[in-house]
Amino acid sequence: MRIRQHVNPLKLEFLLPRGARVLAPHGRELEVELGCAEAQFLFERVAADPRRYAVGLEIRRELVDAVNRRADETRAPVQAIFCHMNIDLPEMFAEGSVTRMFVNFPDPWFKRRHHKRRVIDDQLVGACARALRAGGELFFQSDVWPLALEALAAFEEEPRLENLAGPWSFWRRGNPYGVRSRREQACEEAGLPVWRMLYRRVDLPPPRS
Description:
Helices cover 30% and strands 22% of the residues. With 209 residues, the protein is an alpha/beta fold.
């Protein structure tokens, strides 16, 4: 099967809201990967603990179909959803319903004129913070330094997210989740640096009267 490596997220066909709403089965922790590709990371997460329910968001429909076929064949608690994260995420999950969110090696869109296609922006970060439960975690990793800095700036501006490495700091203890995406494996095998961030959802203090 031929899979497109890049999809222009600004094409009109992707900009129409789909109104999808996702709920985890009762009693399961909901984990979400933004840009799941073939969802290796999520399949390994649920293999380590089948009580989790994993949802992957992906803009390439061929990959969504492939992930869902694999989930059906293996009866894994994994679901891929075809969507445009920057458009659909704010309405996709109930507030405080997600335990963990992962952003693993998003497309860097290196050319300056394509920077507007990058996935991390203030609206997306706000939607992530809203969806996470109190104490929930947001994990980001990239092997592209300028993209990591850009993402760090966006995360640091969200008051509902606490940087567990300290303000304006990268997480230096490696991947804490015990599983790796294909890109992470390739980076480690090639000896490439990876910049990581780990945030926790915190409740804001009530406004002073």
